[in-house]
Amino acid sequence: MGVGCAARTSMLEADDHWMRCALELAQQAQDQGEVPVGALVILDNQIIGEGWNQPIGLSDPSAHAEIAALRDAARRQSNYRLPGATLYVTLEPCVMCVGAITHARIARVVYGATDPKSGAAGGRFSLLGSEQFNHRVEITGGVLADDCGNLLRNFFQSRR
């Protein structure tokens, strides 16, 4: 795997660990001039997919970190469904990403910073946990929120 992260044991330790790995991927996005968001898909305490924001570089509005990580995981698993997997992402998923997460049957989403403008896991909208979907996703927000939020704030401040 690209970030070289190894497995951890307790859920709290694992959440912090995997979010730090996602932050490394977010740094890759920033290094490419993209909004610094990184994502990992974990199954059985192993990375099965990773991605970072690349919509500018790929000229693709769907090239969000979550979508890239889901595509990578689906390709590696030879299955578009990823039951039992956890998605770690440094920023609360948007509406588009919630759709992909739901269709992939991700079991759990762990995110860092809340997105009050377009977050769809409770920040702006509450779609990810919606009972309207036929698949339920467990949500844990605010993991390393300060680190994730600071990376984004610093990125946007440097652009102004």
Overview of this structure, please?
The model has no long low-confidence stretch (mean pLDDT 93). A five-stranded mixed beta sheet has the order 2-1-3-4-5. The protein is built from five helices and five strands. With 160 residues, it is an alpha/beta fold. It has helices at 11-31, 55-58, 65-77, 95-104, 145-159; strands at 38-43, 46-52, 86-91, 108-113, 138-140.
Unreliably modeled segments:
none
Q: Order of SSEs, N→C?
A: HEEHHEHEEH
Q: What's the number of helices?
A: 5
Overall, the morphology is globular
Structural class: alpha/beta
Distance N terminus to C terminus? 34 Å
Output the strand order for the largest sheet. Answer: 2-1-3-4-5
Overall number of strands: 5
**What's the average pLDDT?**
93
Radius of gyration, in Å, reads: 14 Å
Quaternary organisation of the protein chains: single chain
Strand content: 15-25%
Helical content (DSSP H or I, runs of 4+):
25-40%
Most strands sheet: 5 strands, mixed
Outline the fold blueprint:
Blueprint: H1 11-31, E1 38-43, E2 46-52, H2 55-58, H3 65-77, E3 86-91, H4 95-104, E4 108-113, E5 138-140, H5 145-159
Parallel strand pairs: 3-4, 4-5
Antiparallel strand pairs: 1-2, 1-3
Helix pairs in contact: 1-5, 3-4
